[in-house]
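Internal tracking record. Fields below are filled automatically when a chain is submitted to the structure queue. Please do not edit lines marked as system-generated. If the sequence contains nonstandard residues, flag them in the REMARKS field before resubmitting.
Queue: standard
Priority: normal
Entity type: single polypeptide chain
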Amino acid sequence: MVASTPTRSPGPRSSSAFAISVPFESLGHLFSRAIYATHHTILQVVATLIGFVATVVATGALVERLDVLAIPVGFALGVGLRCILLALVLVARLRRMPAAPDGPTPGAPATAVSSTG
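SYSTEM-GENERATED OUTPUT FOLLOWS
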């Protein structure tokens, strides 16, 4: 008979670590769509790839110290970095967009001008 080593369950700590990443993941999707709306896809893909690499590197670096908990912590760090990069890209894209022209917006309904006299 082979003696088995007891396994440690990550329990609620792993759920908490994944929970930290939820807002970043949600904002990341929102920022990605906003960047796509500015007709640019390369920067969004690059930010996603950087976030993925950061997730893998962080998880690998933390696995000795945190064991299984390194997975959700590494994921939270990678998703957080991706969200920050996407936000920076979006702000830069929005600043370069042309300002709205003065006067009525094309396609908007005309406003009635009343003259009293």
